[in-house]
Design brief:
It is a single chain. Helices cover 37% and strands 14% of the residues. The chain has an 8-stranded mixed beta sheet with strand order 1-4-5-6-7-8-9-10, with helices on one face. The chain has a 6-stranded mixed beta sheet with strand order 11-12-13-14-15-16, with helices on one face. Strand 17 and strand 18 form a beta hairpin. The N terminus is likely disordered. It binds zinc ion.
């Protein structure tokens, strides 16, 4: 399975985009594209400047935004101790793990006509890059990853909150911190605020696992942390990975016409991901723990921003850590890369509880993204607004739903209350009001709008030819599409051009025009996920999905953290049911070192497992220590090899393993999204049949 970095390494950088595109053209794309002169400064030869309609939209937005409120600007730079000089942090593997050079262009001009002014402002704020004092005793390194690294002074050393995505940025941050503030004291504790990968993946850059196993360094996390850390990304992992290319714009060069940051932070680092299991879990709703001599009150907030998450209050410093529950943005209720829809009412209530438990006296509030807030009045203002932001989204969307507004309309109906729209931190730099509003309906009512037409709809490619026919054919659609484009009616243009592309995936003119329309829509978005999605689709329509050779480097820590049951469940998903028709067998799996046993059953073209049971007459009994099974899950040693050298023992019909293996399929993370963008090469993955293939850790 490829990692995103490896996938990325196969993707042309800004300068090389021309090469792949001209290559693509030579291979037989539209002749018309060659007539278009590239827009100066655009990374893509087919790229277009913003239209006058787009300029109007951006100008109009600028006039309506609360630019008079400059408190974020002051708070973002307050307490700067030292900027980070090196703009790039190398990865141990030789590539660049973190690159702030890419975002320097944001400082070159006061405004860009292809970036929404609100998004530009946020991306500039996220260009902070260095070490900051929050208050004496609390420090943050910001801008080294999607998330912030926080240090709190303990009695014997430094208590660290949320060690980023990968080890290399963490090490660089620790070095900068030690140079100015750390005083050579060691890390005395680590706290993972929640389960997302940008809050623990760099932990090995900071501490040794042996010190955690021995109990020397407490690693504290919310209850069930391990279970939810891995499970959120496994079952639909390949699909999520692919969708990240849209939400996170992974194909797009950093550029005024491309990627301009992620709202939460500039990007996700690409170093070595590791995971050290916590040795102290917070399970009560509220729990006070003395961590290296510092009194901390942990507030569990399950099913908010993450399945497991906790806020922390440090009463003796009047300092409130809001994890990722309160940041300088509206967060995702629905996540474009794909995730179960979150519960905004529950989320709001936990913010309300934090307000009344801690927020009435806190003097500083800080979090795992963005910058702190100082002074009790400011803290209360933010907490109340964030509480109401999520509650309003829940309540008002359901209010409309109860009056018949559907999932296909709500984003055009629901609006964030004006007062909250004027609060910068309530604007949609991660979640957008549009996709969150749809998410709330999805959560409560599901995908169906209750119109039977959409109950069992034809697949787009099956319905599109009739539309094309009824609209009078491709030429008419292209002509009308161009008119709509030229009139700035971009959403209307997508309606008909998408039908044409669905019906005729090889129609290069249609794809190019749809790309032009998407591009304008992308420029107009305040939300980076929406911007990236439009621009990514435009890129793929123009260039096709990139291709290249890759190798496997899934983090062993992540595989080890997968439960055997999760692994077996995933095998049930990897298996192609169509290849299992008529198969029927039962396997007893025993993993003596951790005392687990399973029945794995193949019947009805379905692979199921049940923990804690053994079949009386299994066709096969497989006994292998879980610590050895991990080698197979990682793809390091096949099950065959484990059996051959006696690491695993089998009783019964060993041929079953071959039969089962033949039903397993590799997932390719480059599947087609927009019609006619497909690769011409074969699948690039080549996993062992019993490899776990968990997808890379998804940060948020
Ligand atoms: Zn995060």
């Amino acid at each position: 399975m490829t990692t995103r970095r490896e996938f990325l390494s196969t993707i042309p950088a800004a300068g090389a985009a021309f090469a792949i595109t001209s290559n693509f053209l030579l291979e037989g794309s539209s002749a018309q594209a060659e007539q278009i002169a590239p827009h100066p400064g655009h990374f893509h030869p087919k790229g277009k400047p913003p239209s006058r309609f787009t300029l109007d939209v951006l100008r109009g937005s600028k006039a309506s935004l609360p630019f008079a409120d400059t408190r974020d600007l002051d708070e973002q730079k307050r307490g700067l101790i030292a900027s980070m000089e090196e703009l790039q942090i190398p990865a141990d593997a030789g590539h660049i793990a973190w690159d702030m050079k890419r975002f320097q262009f944001l400082e070159e001009k006061d405004e860009f006509d292809s970036i929404h002014p609100s998004l530009l402002r946020q991306s500039r704020l996220n260009n902070n890059y260095g070490l900051y004092e929050v208050i004496p005793g609390i420090y943050q390194v910001r801008g080294f990853d999607l998330s912030d690294l926080t240090f709190v002074r303990g009695k014997t050393g430094w208590i660290v909150f949320d060690p980023l995505v990968s080890a290399e940025p963490v090490r660089a941050a620790w070095k900068l911190f030690q140079k100015h503030v750390g005083g050579g004291l060691p890390v005395s504790a680590v706290i993972y605020s929640h389960t997302h990968g940008d809050h623990w993946g760099g932990v090995r850059g900071l501490i040794d696992e042996a010190d955690v196993l021995s109990g020397k360094i407490p690693v504290i996390a919310p209850v069930d942390f391990m279970q939810f850390t891995i499970s959120e990304n496994v079952y639909a992992g390949n699909a999520m990975n692919r969708r990240l290319f849209y939400q996170y714009g992974l194909l797009l060069p950093a550029s005024p016409h491309g990627y301009v940051g992620q709202g939460l932070g500039q990007a996700v680092s690409a170093g070595a991901v590791g995971l050290i299991a916590p040795n102290r879990f917070v399970s009560a709703a509220l729990e006070e723990i003395e961590v290296d001599g510092v009194r901390m009150i942990f507030q569990n907030t399950p099913n908010t921003e993450a399945p497991r998450e906790m806020n922390t209050y440090i009463p003796d410093m009047k300092a409130l850590w809001m994890a990722e529950n309160v940041i300088a943005s509206l967060h995702n209720i629905y996540t474009l890369r794909g995730a179960p829809v979150r519960d905004p009412l529950n989320w709001s209530k936990y913010i309300g509880e934090a307000l009344y438990r801690f927020g009435l006296e806190a003097e500083v509030m800080f979090a795992s993204h963005h910058w702190p807030r100082w002074g009790n009045a400011r803290i209360q203002e933010i907490l109340r607004q964030q509480r109401d932001l999520y509650a309003n989204m829940n309540n008002q969307v359901l209010h409309y739903a109860n009056q018949g507004v559907t999932i296909n309309q709500i984003h055009n109906v629901y609006q964030v209350p004006q007062g909250l729209q004027n609060a910068w931190h309530c604007r949609g730099y991660h979640g957008s009001p549009q996709h969150n509003a749809r998410g709330v309906i999805q959560r409560y009512l599901g995908f169906w709008d209750c119109n039977p037409t959409s109950l069992i709809p034809l697949s787009p490619a099956d319905s599109a030819p009739l539309y094309v026919e009824m609209m009078g054919g491709a030429d008419k659609i292209l002509q009308r599409g161009r008119e709509l484009h030229d009139e700035g009616k971009y959403l209307l243009a997508t309606e008909i051009l998408n039908k044409l592309v669905q019906a005729q995936p090889d129609n290069a003119d249609a794809k190019d025009l749809l790309a032009d329309v998407f591009e304008q829509l992308g420029y107009q978005q305040e939300n980076p996920g929406l911007r990236n999605s439009f621009l990514a689709a435009a890129y793929e329509l123009r260039t096709g999905i990139p291709q290249g050779e890759t190798a496997s480097t899934t983090s062993p820590d992540v595989i080890r953290a997968m439960s055997t049951e999760l692994f077996l469940n995933f095998l049930g998903i990897r298996m192609d049911s169509r290849k299992a028709d008529g198969l029927r067998f039962t396997i007893n799996l025993v993993t003596p070192d951790n005392g687990e046993k399973f029945i794995i059953e193949m019947d009805n073209a379905t692979l199921t497992n049940i923990a804690g049971f053994q079949a009386e007459k299994a066709d096969l009994t497989l006994t292998i220590n879980r610590s050895d099974l991990v080698q197979t899950m990682m793809g390091a040693k096949t099950l065959e090899a484990q059996i051959a050298d006696g690491t695993a023992t089998v009783q019964g019909d060993i041929g079953i393993l071959k039969v089962l293996a033949a039903t397993m399929v590799d997932f390719d993370p480059r599947f087609e999204i927009m019609p006619g963008t497909k690769l011409r090469t074969a699948t690039m993955t080549n996993a062992d049949p019993y490899q776990a293939m968990p997808e890379k850790i998804i940060a948020e």
